[in-house]
Sequence to fold (484 residues):
Amino acid sequence: MLSKLDSILNTIDSWVWGIPLIVLILTTGVILTIRTSGIQFKKLARALKSIMHKSDSATGEVSSFGALCTALSATIGTGNIVGVATAIAAGGPGALFWMWLAALLGMATKYAECMLAVKYREVKPDGHILGGPFYTIEKGLGPKFIWLAKLFAVFAVMAGLLGIGTMTQVNGITSAVNNAFDPDNLHTVSIFGQAVSWSVVIAGLLVTAAAALVIIGGLRRISKVAQVVVPFMAALYVVLGVFVLLFNFGSIDDAFQEIFRSAFGARAAAGGALGAMIAAMQKGVARGIFSNEAGLGSAPIAASAAQTEEPVAQGLVSMTGTFIDTIIICTITGLAIVIAGEGLWSQYSGVELSTKAFQQLYCGMFAGGAPMLSNVIKFAIMISLVFFAFTTILGWDYYSERCLEYLCHGNMKIVTGYRWLYIIAVFIGPYMTLNMVWTIADITNALMALPNIVSLIALSGVTAKMTKDYFDRYPKLDAIEDIA
Fold:
């Protein structure tokens, strides 16, 4: 039964994530890059500088930094460790190139969608803010497109509940814990007719309980947790990765050559070059978007709650999320895997591939303490993945709740009921097959992206005008504090 369902889902996934959607997403990034005059390249330094700006007097529920951390809590997740490894295992090292391209273009997309979300957000009577692509579509495109706004919201709820928010994340956590504590599955129990390691069961229960404690507290509690955990977990993983890359600095040039050759099918035989290129492109773009979520319309939901009166300023802050997520963190994972060699990525996938790559590189650096070091690295990767995935669970609960609130016209009883349904989905996630979980996530991502992309292209003129107006008002702005 499960194998048949896997086959059906894979067929749907190959259809929705075909060349047309990939071209559409990349084209949207190109259009927005042109219309904003390459804002992701020209204004990146200013955007990074503005991350810590505070404007407590402005309208909003959380600081710009809090909104960014909430968005990053949802984007920095299993995609950075498991997703990159899965993409390279399935599409070769060239998948990393397409992840970079999707991210560079996606920075303009992320800027536009978050800026528009602030512009079209609504302040509710009780003071809380609701915004995102649903209001961008409804207000920006007009009442005739409310059906499209609702379609986005429905797909986003599905993505949170069935795909990117729950099952992929908790599955990644429990797989990492299992790999660290019971890799040979020596201690198992039968659940849903399958033998499951006790490490998976215990980890799943702990994650479910911890998620429930935070989720019931709503946005402010999620934001507070994210502002503490996100910087810590990102710093931990970046230090771990940078250290190993520095000690393998001589291999980085060869790794880049391998990535570029593979990206355009040069590693394959002549007859299979095009197929290899398409596979690398499909897996790279799909996993890249899964990781940084540019174009999906998720980050704008968090951005709309930021304390700011300047939509462009928040768009700049939000844009840095894609840079941090993919250009920095995914690159560290990808380079480590490529440097470790084809023997690994042709044999392993998912978290096991990332873990094996880091273990191999670290043990090569310190051969004398290899056995102990191998266990330390395995534990460090596990901790990183646990933090990454746990905060993604929290962030996507917030996204899907806001979309449900839009659909049910603010009926918070329905939203509260959904929270418990979300927690149940986290609970059952560890017992789904890895392929099925990732396939469901890919499908819901694609469905969610389509309405959002339509609005971004249609409103690209509004994006261009607001961007020009902003920088005309602040032509020599060097510090974001000047706009408060």
About this structure: The chain is about 75% helix and 0% strand. Residues 478-484 have pLDDT under 50 and may be disordered.
